[in-house]
Amino acid sequence: MNIKLDPAVVPVGCFDGDIDLFESQYAVPNGVSYNSYVILDEKTAVLDTVDPRRTDEWLANLDKALAGRAPDYLVIHHMEPDHAGSISALADKFPGMTLVGNAKTFPMLTAFTGESYEGRTLTVKEGDTLELGAHTLTFVMAPMVHWPEVMVSYESTGKTLFSADGFGRFGGPDPDAPWVDEARRYYINIVGKYGSNVQALLKKAAALDIQTVCPLHGPTLSGGALALALEKYGMWSSYAPEEKGVLVAYASIHGHTAKAALELAGMLEAQGLKVETMDLTRRDWAEAVAGAFRYSGLVLAAASYDAGVFPPMAQLLARLKSKNFQNRTVGLMENGSWGPTAMRAMLAELEGMKGLTILEPKITIKSAAGEADRAKMRELAGAMAAAL
């Protein structure tokens, strides 16, 4: 796929293929890109910087794009260090450059850098514009997508939205790489808590003639790729399932819970349902969170542990709760050899989530599943099929 940017917009970002954990918590086996752009016009604007891990590489990219020019402006869409971590280096290199942000940007900048940049800042608000010549940036506030100071900007000549962390994806900037799975894992885990704020931004974006989106992570989006991204963001931010199906997530200590969960998955498939299984002791927990949001149904199967629930399941439930998991149909299965406690612990977490339908029967296995347990599992599979 060949994405054609406005010729005046030059990407100068960097790919980080050495990082193991994004935000020190999300596995990124395919790395992550830190996107930054330059608009070359009568006046020149740099849009965002990069993580300090790649400052030197980014400055070299920027020097090449500027070809001897000094930037007039640095537009700061988001103050998280993976995008703002090289501001000091750029400001020191170009002391005549004006830093552009909103009222919440500059206190954060001072907190991170210890510098006030007094006399070097331009504070903008909703609807303000920055004239560069043939190109004009219009600023749109996007608070809590996913930090309070976030804003995006729309460039009307190229019909381009610079979307900050919106529409980002783990991995590199290659537009031909699969987008949905890593974009889902990125969105749900990083932005997912703030669905109503994303909905508000999507409403603002709908009023603009946008042909290209330039996010701060992942590929530039246009055409069919942009249409797909808008469709997915509409579903994700409204907490609607992407597809009819069931994630069976299980946390097993010695294998008996896993065996029962996989048997139940087979029974769900026999009901005609699409089913995905995840072993929470071995799969990336962030992938499990994204999978739970993907499907309309969720089955949680866990061993009891320390008078509660086995920790891999406890972590999934805590993460789901923190990301506002809601509007799904849930089946539950616990295992406990002498005193099952997982069900009670799982229900306690689920009770704090909105719009969940908890199916009957709730299944309790003691050690290994027997025929009576399998009968209840078939009943649960039927109830899930009927509910979906």
SS-based structural class? Answer: alpha/beta
Supply the CATH superfamily name of the largest domain.
Answer: Ribonuclease Z/Hydroxyacylglutathione hydrolase-like
At CATH level 3, the topology of the largest domain is: Metallo-beta-lactamase, Chain A
What is the share of helical residues? 25-40%
Number of distinct helices? 12
Q: Give the beta-strand count.
A: 23
Taken as a percent bin, the fraction of beta residues is 15-25%
CATH first level of the largest domain: Alpha Beta
Query: Based on CA inertia axes, which overall geometry fits?
Result: elongated
Unreliable runs: none
Tell me about the biggest sheet? 7 strands, mixed
Distance linking N and C termini = 37 Å
The radius of gyration over CA amounts to 24 Å
CATH architecture heading of the largest domain:
4-Layer Sandwich
| Whole-number mean pLDDT | 96
Describe this structure in words.
The chain contains 12 helices and 23 strands. It is α/β, with parallel strands linked by helices and 388 residues long. It has 2 domains: 229 residues, Ribonuclease Z/Hydroxyacylglutathione hydrolase-like (Metallo-beta-lactamase, Chain A, 4-Layer Sandwich); 142 residues, 3-Layer(aba) Sandwich (Rossmann fold). Strands 17, 18, 19, 20, 21, 22 and 23 form a 7-stranded mixed sheet that branches. α1 links the parallel β7 and β8. α5 packs across α9. The mean pLDDT is 96.
